[in-house]
Amino acid sequence: MTTSDQRTNTPKPRSSQPWLHQRGEEIQQFGTVRQLPVGLSYDTRMYSCQRLNQVLCDTRILHDLYKKHHWLMRGQTFYQLHLLMDKHADEQLELIDTVAERVQTLGGVAVGDPRHVAEITRIPRPPNGAEEVPAMLSRLLEAHETILEEAHDAAARVQELGDDGTNDVLVSDVIRTNELEAWFVAEHLVDTPLVSG
């Protein structure tokens, strides 16, 4: 073996220096689906991913609304609402993962960038500052209703297409969680006296 052969077969020394500022090619565009062996047609998977990404965007906004309102709660029920907002935010975070993973399972690309989410969501932007507590709670209820309307319609349509997995995610996870949370929030807007007289 010659000296030059020895040089080419010698392993390069390792380095702990991170490879910074890397850029890569986009290997799958948003709004496309790869072929995966899940027993569903391309058209069904494409449709399901579109509907799921809408729910995902709206859910991400609702999660952020819950976190914002968690920080901004005021008044006599501050402590209870502060804890409730955080609990609901955690539950919405679980939904985000569940819905995003379903998109990926179908071969799609789950919407990830917050700026992209803001372009797609149908939930109106709140003011940058703090609102009165009833207004914050009403805003949450409206967001829940937006998600529930989308999820109910999407669940029925993907069921017709034979996508049982997406139907299950929408019904068992998205709809049930949002209905329960909407109930809890709505009960804080009922005008009842603290004591009966």
List keywords for this structure.
197 residues, mainly alpha, Ferritin, globular
Write down how many β-strands occur, each being a DSSP E stretch of 2 or more residues: 0
CATH homologous superfamily heading: Ferritin, core subunit, four-helix bundle
- Specify Rg, calculated over alpha carbons: 23 Å
Q: Provide the helix percentage.
A: 55-70%
Order of helices and strands: HHHHHH
Structure, explained:
- The chain is mainly α and 197 residues long.
- It has a single domain (38-186), classed as Ferritin (Up-down Bundle).
- 63% of the residues lie in helices and 0% in strands.
- The protein contains six helices and no strands.
- The chain has helices at residues 3-9, 42-72, 78-105, 114-120, 133-160, 164-186.
- Helix 5 runs antiparallel to helix 6 (164-186).
- The protein is globular and about 80 Å long.
- The chain starts with a helix and ends in an 11-residue tail after the last helix.
- The model has no long low-confidence stretch (mean pLDDT 93).
